[in-house]
Amino acid sequence: LEFRRVLFRSILESAVNTYASVINNNMNTVMRLMTSVSIVLMFPTLIASLYGMNLKNGLEDNPLGFYEVLAFSLLVSGAIIWLFRRRRWL
Fold it and tell me: Which residues are CB-contacts of 74 (< 8 A; sequence separation ≥ 6)?
């Protein structure tokens, strides 16, 4: 009877540890994705904040300045996405 109890306890502990390992791996995958997305979204925010300051930067008189900054932000974000996909981080 004692041998059965030890055997069942060992099997149950093994099943619980396996389940915890699967959950941990899934959480790591989700956290890696969320970190990559936040890094990709950081660059357009940084570029917009730098060009949105009340300083002379050369684009305030340009009628296409907004679109140039927008295109530059999209280009940088696209490059970061390409880099992350190439390294299989995203």
Answer: 44
CA distance 55 to 64: 18
User: Amino acid letter at 68?
Assistant: E
**Is the separation of the CB atoms in 90 and 36 below 8 Å?**
yes
Rg (CA), the chain: 25
pLDDT by residue for the chain (90 residues), tens only, comes to: 788 888 999 999 999 999 999 999 999 999 999 999 999 999 999 998 888 877 777 777 888 988 998 999 999 999 999 999 999 877
Q: What is the pTM of this model?
A: 0.71
Instruction: Please tell me the total number of residues recorded for the chain in this structure.
Output: 90
Answer for the pair 76, 42: CB distance below 8 angstroms, yes or no: no
C-alpha to C-alpha distance for 58 and 82, rounded to whole angstroms: 29
d(CA 38, CA 21): 26
